[in-house]
Request: fold
Amino acid sequence: MKILVTGATGGVGRLVVDELLARGATDVRALTVDPVRAALPPQVEAVRGYLGRPGTLPAALAGVDRMYLAPFLESSVRSGAVVGRSEGETNAEVCRLAAAAGVRRIVDLAGAKGEHWQVIEDGVEACGVPFVHLEPGEFMANAGIWSAQIAAGDVVRDGYGDAANAPIAIEDIAAVAAHCLLEDGHEARSYELTGPESLTRRTRVEQIGQALGRRLTYVDLPHDEFVAQLSEAMGEYAAWYADGMRELAEHPQAAVPTVAELTGRPATTFAAWARAHAGMFR
Ligand SMILES: NC(=O)c1ccc[n+]([C@@H]2O[C@H](COP(=O)([O-])OP(=O)(O)OC[C@H]3O[C@@H](n4cnc5c(N)ncnc54)[C@H](OP(=O)(O)O)[C@@H]3O)[C@@H](O)[C@H]2O)c1
Reply:
């Protein structure tokens, strides 16, 4: 059974490759724009191609049974490679090519239903290939937006410190993806994925401090200042993100048990993630 991992050098895709190998998959193909630079494990077949240019994909899709589909959205591309295409159109074309090539399962990474990732799921469903939708909420790695401030001092100026959600480790997303690629019984399911506990932004900063052996102080910025600060890293998504945090301050996201139920191991806690990634904040 040949499994194609797209976005195989990305945060999640690279870990999906590792998870598949760890679970004994022996026929893993990985899609990347640069197979040499990707430096994938030697038992992985690295093939050249780019989700943003579907014309590069037929050879990569040949003989593939199951595919991990990394999220490709036109709005994330600034290179001009997909000028003139509406959001989700390229993804839909990739899915049609996968169907034409005989792929029999797509496990896609999107996000919460109804958000801007919805077009990913729409394209997958339109192509007719049996699918599993993975719908993670916020990634723990997003805490990286505090890394420069924490490296520079003990004060984190941020916004909506009381906003609470249940961020997930990308390692857990990858473990679920590998499970759904290898195991049967998940067809047409949508899995909301979160970490094991709902935590405020303030608590997350405190836990990073504990991982570093430091006491960090969280300072709430007014909305507009928060958006301006976020814009440096998030560009046009800053206002959308800040609005989401305002919403979470009033309506916290609850944790769901999906990761543990599917993988059979507890989802990574934020405190453990912070200890494992403490170097990011030094
Ligand atoms: N952060 C969150 O809270 C959150 C929540 C839900 C969903 N998401 C989504 O999850 C995704 C992150 O997953 P990820 O880190 O595994 O994947 P990624 O960073 O989006 O990309 C994975 C790989 O695909 C190729 N690629 C994708 N888009 C490209 C582009 N526009 N231009 C050039 N190459 C591109 C690159 O591989 P090669 O160069 O090797 O070809 C890249 O390493 C994001 O798309 C995000 O929207 C994020």
